[in-house]
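Hi! If you just cloned this repository, the fastest way to understand the data is to look at a raw example. We've pasted two of them here, unedited. The first protein comes first, obviously.
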Amino acid sequence: MFIKKNYSVKDMVWWTRHDTALLLIIALIPVVIYQLFEQKWLHLPWLPIAVVGTAVAFIISFQNNASYDRVWEARKIWGGIVNTSRSWGMTVNDFITGDFTDEDVSGAELNAIRKELVFRHIAWLTALRHAMRQPRPWEHVMKHPTNREWGEAIGVREHRHSLEEEITPYLSEADLSYILSKSNIATQLVSLQSKQLRQLRTRGLIEDFRHMEMENLLVELYTLQGKSERIKNFPYPRQYATLNWCFLWIFVLLLPFGVMFEFDKIGSALSGTYPLIGDNFVWLSVPFSALVMWVFHTMERIGRVSENPFEGTPNDVPITTISRGIEIDLREMLDEDPASIPPPIEPQYNTQT
């Protein structure tokens, strides 16, 4: 779900509310021990904490850049699928004719062949998006409670409908039975397209040049499918992700002990003039520490939710919406009855799926 409009500060606060509560507790505990139990030895020098914070900022920046590259590459791949799919619809419509055959082929039969090729392509889109939504062991984003809330509210189509249920309307019984017996359904559907093109070439319904051009489009679809599968099946390297998480929490746990002492020093300077404020100034370190921890933690979390751009989160590539848009374009090329063409998928909560 790549496009989210009107993403407000309120959305971000709501999305991170569980993390914010935890960070406030972490920031509060040292101050309670330091101030209420008068354990004034409980503090750390600021300099080493600042050094750790600088290192954490660098590794989070690296993670976010790498994660964004994965999302943007996935978006470009599916943009390529859009373009190649439209080209496929155009060539199917215009290249399959009776101009080069001695057979007496009716217009109805030609239209049926065109429809079969276009619908099989829509089935390929359906199989590919379902494959991209299948969970992998390293995909963990939807385990977070607020991410689950988004998923349940938006309702990712591939999580609510089976592949067989969605792909059946586009295939003949023979094709359906054949591809459901295979492990990579999308790959086999393109293979079926190629086999049918060979049969059409044998019958003279397409000549050599048109056959070659249409085969090139199938090769391009294989290329785009492979690129999409590469992102899906190769995660952001776990050694980096694990170290990022460990370094972040080292910084988060150390930060309140340094900030608390700095605020206490400011309070000591104020005690002579404003004793009430000065004696309690250390408590202001709690929201300040929580704010700094929230910034670092949220930056790291943004990187984590962007690692796998096909999970179905609000920040992912909207492959369901893209596929529906392609289907509408292709079926309109066939001049189908508008009432039989499914409508575009409407955004839910300003989010495309």
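Ok, and the second one:
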Amino acid sequence: MNHKRKICFVTPTLQMGGMERVVSLLSNHAAKNGYDVYIICLINKKSYYYLDDRVNVLEPAFEYKKGLLNKTKVFYHVSSCLFSVRPSVVLSFSEVFNPLSIISAKLANIPVYISDRSNPKKELSLLTQILRKLTYPLAKGMISQTELAKTISLNKGYNNNITVIPNPLREIDDTIERIKGPIIISVGRLVSTKNYKELIDIFFEIEDEKKWQLWILGDGPDRSDLQEHINELKLNDRVKLFGAVKDVDSYLSKASIFAFSSISEGFPNALSEAIAYPLPCIAYDCPAGPADLIKNEENGFLIPIHDRDSFKLHLIKLMRNNLLRESFMSSYKLHRKSYNIDSISERYLNFLLN
């Protein structure tokens, strides 16, 4: 029966990012289980993530630029694809483009669900806010990544049918030998909300632990500024920016602590993966996600946001106490089970199709 069910995901891109990774994982799971899967991309960019050969990617023929004209082109692209494919259901990702997907699906008489992916407290443009208020109630349902996001969406009257489904974990490579050294690691885009400059400053202030290094994986517009800051602090031999890497697990295997300094999240995939790897974690309690993943002093330290002194003190505790680090990793198998790709993907499919 499944092979007759067509599922369509709408996403801005399939480039490197948390939302894009989730779309690829869901698509691969659905294709593997006999569904006809289509991904409508709104911006024509090459996929960063592996996609099953059975997944159909529909990209626009134009180069996206900001402005009303390009929004009209995107609307036409989505509408044309939906009228052509005629899927059983549509799931659209991204606060900015969800309103366009909802209108397109409604015109095509196709059930549409939506999922916001960024910090639920993030201030978006006035136009986006108005469009969400007008169109979100027209969606058949909404998927939130965290309880906080669900509560905020309900309070704003976006939709009455909202479920919370966290992001699935990717497969962790357990074949790599773990050689844990005095290394603190972090993973994420080099943008201001990841707050890496503060993490580097905190690391710099821990003066009596010179044997430790800080590794940061990821790329982004802040890279040159961060490298300049590292140079100014004369930390080139201890703080390393590795850029975007494919083999993340080979770097995690060498680290002893995962530090997460982000001040704004939708759902922090990198933190979830670190807990599952496993690594002992320390994170700011930013909106939204860290509080869903870390039970303070059980599997990590959850630090009040912007409490830099507390972050530093608890990071020092982890650096100096191997037994504490080991205790924080003891429940990683339970975390893996809770966020397993197949079980999370099935929760998505059940909500969309049942």
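That's it. A detail worth noticing about the second one: The radius of gyration is 21 Å.
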